[in-house]
């Protein structure tokens, strides 16, 4: 049975077989005996995104990692980095140092109240994530679309979209669908509002020049 550790753009967890491009964690949120959720949504403010391969290391996903009785961290999986950023995660400084350093610089540049250090970013993200902050969805006006950077994720009528090159790409756990022109969706937004999913501080980092890793389907 698939584990409930596939992450949607809003940070919620789902069971599925599509592993995606990245793993990561937000602390220990599983029971290693049953390999099911332990009822917690996070145990640390440091929500990170990691590479799926690191120096040949192997892990028992959602099992024991540090000996009997020690769960280690709960492996989560993301379609791509755009998805992870939308959920409120950031690049890991241990296994993705180059990306983490670039993200830190862009985050500090786009957010005046941040020095770019991990604890500072985590504090800001924790109060902005849809999941950790328990924020109500924030609708946005149609004319805002043109001001958003590539990599921003939105939701409309139950569907997640990622903004890329002037189009919105429908998101699925397995990849992105064909891009839809903004004009078409803006017309539709009069009846069905769009809601912003990506944390505003992360959007500021995207505006400041951070380029996230996209799933290959986004290029097709």
Give a description of the structure.
The chain has five helices and 15 strands. The chain has 220 residues and is of the alpha+beta class. It folds into two domains: 6-126, no CATH class; 138-205, no CATH class. The strands form four sheets. Strands 9, 10, 11, 12, 13, 14 and 15 form a seven-stranded antiparallel beta sheet that branches. Strands 7-3-6-8 form a four-stranded mixed beta sheet. Strands 1-2 form a two-stranded antiparallel ribbon. A hairpin with a 2-residue loop joins strand 10 (153-156) and strand 11 (159-164).
Mean pLDDT: 90
The chain-level structural class is alpha+beta
Radius of gyration: 17 Å
State the order of secondary-structure elements, H for helix, E for strand.
EEEEEEEHEHHEEEEEEHEH
What is the total domain count? 2
- Assembly form of the protein: single chain
The biggest sheet, with number of strands, parallel, antiparallel or mixed sense and barrel status, is: 7 strands, antiparallel
Share in helix: 10-25%
In whole angstroms, how far apart are the ends? 31 Å
Number of continuous helical runs? 5
Poorly predicted runs are: none
* Residue share in β-strands: 15-25%
What's the β-strand tally? Answer: 15
Taken from the alpha-carbon principal axes, the silhouette is globular
């Amino acid at each position: 049975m698939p584990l409930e550790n596939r992450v949607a753009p809003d940070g919620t967890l789902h069971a599925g077989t599509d592993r995606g491009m990245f793993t990561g964690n937000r602390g220990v949120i599983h029971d290693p005996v049953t390999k099911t959720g332990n009822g917690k949504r996070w145990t640390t403010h440091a929500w990170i995104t990691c590479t799926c391969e690191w120096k040949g290391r192997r892990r028992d996903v959602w099992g024991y990692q540090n000996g009997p009785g020690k769960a280690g961290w709960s492996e989560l999986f993301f379609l791509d980095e755009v998805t992870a950023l939308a959920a409120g995660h950031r690049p890991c400084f241990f296994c993705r140092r180059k990306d983490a350093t670039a993200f830190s610089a862009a985050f500090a540049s786009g957010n005046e109240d941040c020095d770019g250090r991990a604890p500072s970013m985590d504090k800001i993200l924790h109060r902005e994530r849809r999941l950790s902050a328990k924020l109500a969805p924030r609708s946005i006006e149609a004319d805002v679309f043109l001001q958003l950077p590539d990599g921003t994720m939105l939701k409309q009528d139950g569907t997640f979209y990622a903004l890329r090159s002037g189009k919105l790409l429908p998101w699925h756990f397995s990849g992105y669908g064909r891009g839809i022109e903004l004009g078409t969706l803006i017309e539709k937004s009069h009846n069905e509002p769009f809601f912003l999913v990506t944390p505003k501080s992360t959007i500021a980092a995207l505006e400041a020049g951070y380029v996230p890793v996209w799933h290959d389907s986004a290029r097709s």
